[in-house]
Design brief:
Two copies of one chain form a homodimer.
Chain A: E1 3-5, E2 8-18, E3 31-39, E4 49-57, H1 62-65, E5 83-91, E6 101-105, E7 108-109, E8 111-114, E9 121-122, H2 139-152, E10 159-162, H3 170-179, E11 183-188, H4 191-200, E12 205-208, H5 215-222, E13 227-232, H6 236-245, E14 246-254, H7 272-276, E15 280-283, H8 293-305
Parallel strand pairs in A: 10-11, 10-13, 11-12, 13-14, 14-15
Antiparallel strand pairs in A: 1-2, 2-3, 2-7, 4-5, 4-8, 5-6, 6-9
Helix pairs in contact in A: 2-3, 5-6
């Protein structure tokens, strides 16, 4: 349904917006599906870029951004999702031309007029699946890389544990740690995920935390000599069990605490282990490390091209799109 | 009561020993006062050193060592106190001669025959009070130095918070941070301690945590712009309040969690702040840093000689000693 108007084709633009800040689990009623229209031309006088959005990445952390954040020291502000990969349809910015593939943080919609094109990055490598550009090749991959290598610096042969190991970040962390020569164990929440970790992703071991009565005992089984590096995605009881099983001078990189997002937080009772074992526990936010992105790409692209990294993707295609180019 | 026997004077040696491992608070009945005798001569064939013990330092961490510790990864083993400063009475080790002042980890007794003299260190500086050698000039001081400078690396002008700020380590941490040009606030448990911190030890501010209904509000009052460095001695509710008030990229050095030693541990509920604020939290044990001792002495001795560091000492003199030299 394209219509001509003031010299430019007008396209229907479906958008998903957030009606209000979310508390607890989000539900469909927190969102609104709107249809507006957008001109297939960057307005004169603007230096913007018009994108057709191809992939939108829905990441767990987005839930936190849908909440009401009042803290000025907070590293992000409340917003609607998300990270988008799109194709340039029109541009008045000399750095982008029609047909370029770019990614950036944009709304959840079919087309976007980006008025601050400096927030976009051009995708220069096209010999890998395009969808990887919202995952392993962008913030998700950089998160795994930074949390593992910059925060924890695992040495060859060290013992690495990853929770939520089948998650967007976790499944990369485990594979990155294997590439660094570590012994790697992951936890996940179903038999299928555990099988995937062991049989497809090359983890040395994996277990279903829901089937373990005693997480401490489970970790002792897989790490009789203790854990050197823990990539923390979940928090709560798992963190408590990990603290008991850390080796002296262990490192914990805190990427997420997803078990705590929707419940009354459970503080770890075994914090004394931080002293006994001289543990370093460090939270990080990938946006602080974007300067490492080129270094990360140099490291990860060859591994991807050689088929050494397997990416789990869960892609939902929006079939109702009418205005496809 | 000295008696001659096989060519050597024999001295009465009062000893305090631990009867059994302690659980919860220690009480007098956990200890036994024994009287034995010791010869005022290192036996032939031994390469030991005989000490008259002058000062014994009773530190909070000793409580933890009085408990039953079964973890082979643990940084210390169960034992009886303590850190002792003594004078050499006789020696068959060429590195020590009669009259030398030494310190080391010895039993709680009047005299000790040290059969492994390599565990002793000679005290080379005698122009400062001798008792400082069990405190600011030894492990206590090194603990404050390492936890503040090595773990947290405060920059001039940064905002430092110290809990248990009138404690053996805490009162030094605050003064060291002032010497480094920081803004320093301490918490303590009585009006007298708060006055001492503000009027004698040079803290910028101090408060009595027992009088605060809301620790978060108290910290916001003293740190409207947030805390860069927290020297953690207490844990529990204070840690939770601190996490809410940390600045981005704040550092927490975990020296002790004394609020947790005798109760069911209270885990911090605000751990998400570790991510939001990119906080680094690191436990440490001073024994890992003994190689820094000479560097520490070079730094601290001039400040002590110039009267820039005030040491709180709580000395109990054992009056019943009969065999004093």
């Amino acid at each position: 349904m394209a219509s001509e108007g003031e010299g430019a084709v007008e396209l229907r633009n479906k958008q998903v917006t957030l009606k209000h800040h979310v508390s607890g689990f989000p539900s469909e009623t927190d969102f609104e599906l709107r249809t507006s229209s957008i001109k297939l031309k960057v307005p004169e006088g603007s230096s913007g870029v018009l994108l057709q959005n191809l992939y939108l990445s829905a990441d767990p952390y987005i839930l936190l951004r849908m909440r009401n954040i009042n803290d000025p020291n907070h590293y992000f502000t409340s917003f609607t999702p998300g990270s988008v990969l799109g194709r340039v349809l029109d541009s008045r910015d000399p750095k982008f031309k029609k047909g370029d593939l770019v990614d950036g943080e944009i709304g959840w919609e079919e087309y976007t007029l980006v008025t601050a094109p400096e927030t976009l990055s051009k995708i220069e490598y096209t010999d890998v699946p395009l969808s990887y550009c919202t995952g392993v090749l962008r913030l998700i991959g950089l998160t795994a890389y930074v949390g593992l290598f910059e925060i924890c610096a695992p040495k060859k042969g060290e013992h690495v544990f990853v929770s939520a190991a089948c998650g967007a970040v976790g499944h990369l962390v485990g594979q990155f740690a294997k590439l660094a020569g570590c012994y790697v164990v992951g936890s996940a929440g179903s038999k299928e995920k555990v099988d995937l970790l062991k049989n497809k992703l090359g983890f040395d071991e994996a277990f279903n935390y829901k089937e373990e009565q005693d997480l401490d005992a489970a970790l002792r089984r897989y790490f009789p000599q203790g854990i050197d590096v823990y990539f923390e995605n979940v928090g709560g009881k798992m963190l408590d069990a990990v603290l008991l099983n850390m080796r002296p001078h262990g490192r914990i990189s805190v990427c997420g605490l997803i078990s705590q997002y929707n419940t009354e937080p459970e503080g770890p009772k075994n914090l004394m282990q931080i002293i006994y074992k001289r543990i370093r526990m460090e939270g990080f936010v990938v946006w602080d490390y974007t300067s490492l992105y080129p270094k990360f790409l140099d490291w990860v692209l060859p591994h991807i091209r050689e088929g050494k990294i397997f990416c789990i993707e869960d892609i939902t295609e929006v079939k109702s799109r009418e205005n496809r180019n």
